[in-house]
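Shift notes (night). Ran Beta-crystallin A3 while the centrifuge was going.
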Amino acid sequence: MAQTNPLPVPTGPWKSVRSRGRENRQPPLCHPPVLEWLRSSLRMAPLPRELISAGITVYDQENFQGKRMEFTSACPNIMECNFDNIRSLKVECGAWVGYEHTGFCGQQFTLERGEYPRWDAWSGSNAYHIERLMSFRPICSANHKESKITIFEKDNFIGRQWELSDDYPSLQAMGWANNEVGSMKIQCGAWVCYQYPGYRGYQYVLEADHHGGDYKHWREWGSHAQTCQIQSIRRIQQ
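Came back to this:
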């Protein structure tokens, strides 16, 4: 059996304790050198990056220049970190959604693992020219291998329905009757729906762990939602 080395005990003015005829010298826990030794001995090393479920690095200048900051959790307002805007970013772990405004409001931008040197790398072909990214959060339910969504023709899960478990660059080309979707149920994973075919236009991130996975009206897709027009949809990769 392998032997382990005990933690070194610092020297100091320890009080004597007699036990079974022998004198043991034990450190009083209130002594300052011992407190410092305990703190340093119990200090934990940072977790390896592969054990972190989500990680993103943001920069205040394009092409990964300027001020930078790393995050492993949601940021509702980048200005509180002394950034006036996010102009480039790298996603090391997990999937994220960025927002045009603070407080997770405005247009949504799907951020999967990779590098984004400029705003147009994450905004894609949106209906409006948007260079702001002021808040972001991880997409915890993203699971590319096990994803399932049911789309409905009308609000409140009424009318024709269609269950999907794959990516569809054009719903109409695959047999959906029109260019609108009234409501959706997310059974597994996270999805991003697009206003136009070919994954273009407004993005709407829909997750199994939000609203209980039930989106009964298009207004629940996001604060920027102005129409129920959905013509392409895909799974978000973790």
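The radius of gyration is 26 Å. Confidence is low (pLDDT under 50) at residues 1-52.
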